[in-house]
Specification:
- The chain is of the alpha/beta class and 416 residues long.
- The chain folds into two domains: 199 residues, FAD/NAD(P)-binding domain (3-Layer(bba) Sandwich), CATH 3.50.50; 187 residues, D-Amino Acid Oxidase, subunit A, domain 2 (D-Amino Acid Oxidase, Chain A, domain 2).
- 29% of the residues lie in helices and 27% in strands.
- It contains eleven helices and 18 strands.
- Strand 10 and strand 11 form a beta hairpin.
- Helix 2 packs across helix 10 and helix 3 crosses helix 10.
- The longest helix has 16 residues.
- The termini are far apart.
Length: 416
């Protein structure tokens, strides 16, 4: 069943009685060629590209809850490719290009909106860093514009330009950046993967990973044992726990990242605005609420809720950048579990155990990478070797010293 205007009109005329479930509700088969653990955007995209790009359809996606119940439904929807280092820039630009054709590819409205992403700076050093990043982006064929304070004021006149602590001196703009509806993305990938023969198994939590003679043989789940020759882990902040089931210790930490949404107001923010000095980001949803967040909670946690100290910090940052927000009420907040790597860049690679593959370490950037992450992870699993786009995202870089330190923060994940 394809979605189209004609189908929508036909169903409206007959009371919407002809719609079918977006994907099948199946019982696990005893054996699969590939198991993808994690039914978020990265896991579902991996399964979809395994089927579409590599013809591997005997695949199951294992999700411990329901589709969209994890980090995929707990982020702030931002997509962008404004990265500095060669190991990241080409990867995220490939993701942006996939975003631009995603809805046609999946036949699903993911509400991709290229409304622009503006990164503000408040010091001369910040301007130099933004100029360097913009130049690197343009050298890779990625759009970037360095704006002065007057140009930023023309776009967003209500920002706190004259804040004594954090005056706004300009910003780096990527017009092709923007937002996408997070749960629609996972629903679209789930539907598209199902149409290509992938089994999507909800409420199927992995409780153990079987390893024999240095190779994975399958998993134990709450719905029974499942055998497979290859297993890909795409479980974000739970990567350490899953990898430990196979005897691996990963160079990541799990932290809570909180996000917030205000009451609905008239159109105010026509793009995404981030404030590097306070590590704050904000956009406006199609329903009118301001969606915003800031830093991670500094302690390790697997809870999907955060501390009040970070709530206060985020609200202060919001007031510093957008003083008029002080009149709004915050409706709700939520927390996602971030898998913070030691250099702030992801890991897409084979593990030391044959047949076990890792997709983790996304820090703050997991959602924007969803298409390219699935595309590259599928290639790595199918070919048993990384693609050129994720060749620098190797697990052993932490042993060899070939780090992708995008933020220049060193091995301190709680400082990214």
């Amino acid at each position: 069943m394809t979605y189209s205007f004609l189908r929508l009109a036909a169903e409206a005329l007959r009371g919407n009685t002809g719609w079918q479930p977006a994907w099948r509700d199946l019982d696990p088969q005893p054996v699969y060629d590939v198991l993808v653990v994690g039914g978020g955007g990265h896991g579902l995209a991996t399964a979809y590209y395994l089927a579409r790009e590599h013809g591997i359809t005997n695949v199951a996606v294992l999700e411990k809850g329901w589709i969209g119940s994890g980090n995929a439904g707990r982020n702030t929807t931002i997509i962008r490719s404004n990265y500095l280092l060669p190991g990241n820039e080409a990867f995220y630009e490939h993701s942006m290009q996939l975003w631009e054709g995603l809805e046609q590819d999946l036949n699903y409205n993911a509400m991709v909106s290229q409304r622009g992403v503006l990164n503000l700076f408040s010091t001369d050093g910040g301007r130099d860093a933004a100029a360097r990043r913009g130049n690197a982006m343009r050298l890779h064929g990625v759009d970037a514009e360095l704006l002065d304070a007057a140009q930023v004021r023309a776009m967003h006149p209500y920002l706190g330009f004259d804040n004594a602590r954090f005056p706004i001196k300009g910003g780096l703009l990527q017009r092709r950046g923007g937002t996408a509806r997070h749960d629609a993305v996972v629903w679209g990938y789930a539907r598209a993967a199902d149409r290509r023969g992938v089994d999507i198994l909800q409420n199927c939590e992995v409780t153990g990973i079987s390893v024999a003679n240095g190779r994975v043989t399958g998993v134990e789940t709450t719905r029974g044992s499942i055998k497979a020759g290859k297993i890909g882990l795409a479980v974000a902040g739970h990567s350490s726990r899953l990898a430990a089931m196979a005897g691996l210790r990963l160079p990541i930490e799990s932290h809570v990242l909180q996000a917030f949404v205000s009451e609905a107001i008239k159109p105010l923010l026509h793009g995404v605005v981030t404030f590097g000095a306070e590590h704050f980001y904000i956009s406006q949803s199609d329903k009118g609420g301001l969606v915003f967040g800031g830093d991670i909670d500094g302690y390790n946690s697997y809870a999907q809720r955060g501390s009040l100290a970070l709530v206060e910090n985020v609200m202060e940052a919001c007031m510093a950048m957008l003083p008029m927000a002080g009149r709004l009420r915050v409706l709700r907040s939520w927390g996602g579990i971030m898998d913070m790597s030691m250099d702030g860049s992801p890991i897409i690679d084979r593990s030391p155990i044959e047949g076990l593959y890792l997709n983790t370490g996304w820090c703050y950037g997991g959602f924007k990478a969803t298409p390219a992450s699935g595309w590259c992870f599928a290639h790595t699993i199918a070919k048993d070797a990384p693609h050129a786009l994720n060749a620098a995202m190797r697990l052993d870089r932490f042993a060899t010293g070939a780090l992708l330190d995008e933020n220049g923060a060193g091995p301190y994940p709680n400082r990214h």
